[in-house]
Amino acid sequence: xxxxxxxxxxxxxxxxxxxxxxxxxxxxxxxxxxxxxxxxxxxxxxxxxxxxxxxxxxxxxxxxxxxxxxxxxxxxxxxxxxxxxxxxxxxxxxxxxxxxxxxxxxxxxxxxxxxxxxxxxxxxxxxxxxxxxxxxxxxxxxxxxxxxxxxxxxxxxxxx
Length: 160
Fold this sequence. Notes:
Blueprint: E1 7-16, E2 22-25, E3 32-35, H1 43-49, E4 57-62, E5 76-80, E6 84-85, E7 95-100, E8 103-112, E9 116-120, E10 130-141, H2 144-149
Antiparallel strand pairs: 1-2, 1-3, 1-10, 4-10, 5-9, 6-7, 7-8, 8-9
């Protein structure tokens, strides 16, 4: 079976920045599982895996436009410090989570005062070319429940 819309893909990946620094990796843990073609992964990633088979190794280099977009200079927002989660004391450069109407969102602290903080809402990898090294472990047809929910279930996927 090859990767196509409505298939559940299990894979291991390592993510690198432009200087070849490892950002994150699933090696040593469970394979990541996602439902292909349902916007669960960045578009350039899914496009590069379309048609691939289990057992394949794929190297994927994505420009900012294919990954997390260009950095936006107007993405600085002022929020109450009490809305930042992830630490007790905040400093410039730290990553925080802010809960929004669209769900949790990662932000980078730019400036922090006693009650308010200026945060950069750009994705931390916005404006960067990134590279994934991917090992496809397994591919299967999605269940009716996974299709209804819009994501993969089970190990490496969503747990209900």
